[in-house]
């Protein structure tokens, strides 16, 4: 199997690392427009894994005349570049006959990729956007809840996910583990949820709740953020009555960030100061957050997915919970939980182990049991229970 990874930043590096250590992957080609970063990423993987299976190719996006040929040389392509490149990359992959997945991050880009469904089917190509952490892995776990709870209406699916520093520091108890623009978008854009079977929008940073995880985390908070449900409300409308996604943070985070929003600091509308300087509050805030929330220590990723249903007059409940930290190779928890699921999906597509061909989101295209089993082999182990009893990762629908 030959897999192309486009983008050699943190997530692209981590995905290429996982591919290079995976049995059956003969060649990993890492592509980027930054030769220095590309070479450094390739050499780090080669040195750590003592392998020469990782190659580097310079590619200029959005249009590189060599891209079509490069795609055609590989069985699957994994995109780890900003989301706005993904629709054109997906289109090129379909025409090249190469399976394609990406880290997602924007519903409009995902919709553009899903519009390629008919063409992908005709070309025998599987195309799955939104394969990172959330949306991505968390959505597949939600699909697992729907499967294991069995036929009939699901009362509720709740998805709670957070990437946190192990040692929180003021003022926000948070460190940036991905794009600051993406973070602000999650907080200020409307959030699509299912309420009483209907798709509705609720404000970001709203509906704050408390929850607990095992020590050392204890009490945390979770609140509405946009993007995490992706197209799940559409997928499960008519099957699930209530579905939502909230981001986990240390207590007080939502209130503090809400103050920044209320002061207008997340607005892109220009503001002119008394001395005649015109600035964008959002750009200033983004720069300050980037400077002050730079990661300085170990992180952790927390995931909890709950499902509830009534079956034959009896309440049934599903829970999956994950606490993930960095690995022995220095890959952070966020890198692992974002890139490893996408690497697994790329391999599953190339082996014909996803649903397809065609274009679809993870909850509809990726079999949950096999994905969870592959994650467990990498040390990303969900603790699953159904009606309070442990569920093995490889369990099938009852």
What does this structure look like?
The protein has 398 residues and is of the alpha/beta class. It has 2 domains: 2-128, NAD(P)-binding Rossmann-like Domain (Rossmann fold, 3-Layer(aba) Sandwich); 137-325 and 378-390, Dihydrodipicolinate Reductase, domain 2 (2-Layer Sandwich). It is built from 14 helices and 19 strands. It has helices at residues 10-20, 35-49, 67-72, 86-96, 107-114, 117-123, 137-149, 180-188, 232-236, 253-262, 281-292, 333-350, 362-365, 368-377; strands spanning 2-6, 27-32, 54-58, 76-79, 99-102, 126-128, 154-165, 191-195, 198-202, 209-213, 218-224, 240-249, 271-272, 278-279, 299-311, 314-325, 358-359, 383-386, 389-390. Strand 2, helix 2 (35-49) and strand 3 (54-58) form a beta-alpha-beta unit. Helix 4 runs parallel beside helix 5 (107-114). The chain is globular. The chain starts with a strand and ends in an 8-residue tail after the last strand. The model has no long low-confidence stretch (mean pLDDT 95).
Q: Short summary of the structure?
A:
This protein is an alpha/beta fold.
Q: What is the CATH topology descriptor of the largest domain?
A: Dihydrodipicolinate Reductase, domain 2
Number of domains: 2
* Strands, count: 19
* Strand line-up of the largest beta sheet: 10-11-12-7-15-16-18-19
Which value, in Å, is the CA radius of gyration?
21 Å
What does the main sheet amount to?
A: 8 strands, mixed
Q: Given the C-alpha coordinates, what overall shape results?
A: globular
Helix content: 25-40%
Tell me the name of the CATH class of the largest domain: Alpha Beta
């Amino acid at each position: 199997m030959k897999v192309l990874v486009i983008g050699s930043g943190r997530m692209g590096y981590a995905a290429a690392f996982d591919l290079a250590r995976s049995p059956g992957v003969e060649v990993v080609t890492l592509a980027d427009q930054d030769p220095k970063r590309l070479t450094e990423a390739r050499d780090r993987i080669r040195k750590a894994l003592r392998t020469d299976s990782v190659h580097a190719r310079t590619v200029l996006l959005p249009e590189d005349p060599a891209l079509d040929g490069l795609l055609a040389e590989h069985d699957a392509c994994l995109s780890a570049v900003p989301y706005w490149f993904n629709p054109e990359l997906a289109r090129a992959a379909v025409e090249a006959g190469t399976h394609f997945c990406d880290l997602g991050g924007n519903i409009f880009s995902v919709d553009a990729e899903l519009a390629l469904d008919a063409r992908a089917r005709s070309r025998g190509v599987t195309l799955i956007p939104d394969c990172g952490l959330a949306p991505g892995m968390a959505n597949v776990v939600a699909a697992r809840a729907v499967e294991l709870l069995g036929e009939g209406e699901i009362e509720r699916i709740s998805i709670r996910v957070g990437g946190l520093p192990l040692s929180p520091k003021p003022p926000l108890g948070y460190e940036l583990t991905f794009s600051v623009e993406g973070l602000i978008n999650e907080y200020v854009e409307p959030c699509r949820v299912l309420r009483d079977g209907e798709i509705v929008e609720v404000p970001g940073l709203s509906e704050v709740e408390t929850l607990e995880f095992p020590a050392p985390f204890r009490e945390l908070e979770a609140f509405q953020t946009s993007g995490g449900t992706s197209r799940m409300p559409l997928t499960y409308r008519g099957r699930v009555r209530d579905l939502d996604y909230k981001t986990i943070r240390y207590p007080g985070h939502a209130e503090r960030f809400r103050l920044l929003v209320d002061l207008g600091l997340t607005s892109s509308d220009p503001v002119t100061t008394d001395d005649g300087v015109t600035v964008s509050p959002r750009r200033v805030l983004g720069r300050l957050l980037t400077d002050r929330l730079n990661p300085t220590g170990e992180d952790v990723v927390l995931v909890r997915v709950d499902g509830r249903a009534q079956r034959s007059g009896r309440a049934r409940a599903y829970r999956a919970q994950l606490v993930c930290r960095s690995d022995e190779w220095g890959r952070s928890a966020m890198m692992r939980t974002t890139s490893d699921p996408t690497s697994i999906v790329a391999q599953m597509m190339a082996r014909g182990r996803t649903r397809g061909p065609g274009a679809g989101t993870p909850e509809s295209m990726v079999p949950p049991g096999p994905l969870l089993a592959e994650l467990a082999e990498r040390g990303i182990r969900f603790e699953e229970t159904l009606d309070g009893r442990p569920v093995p990762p490889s369990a099938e629908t009852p």
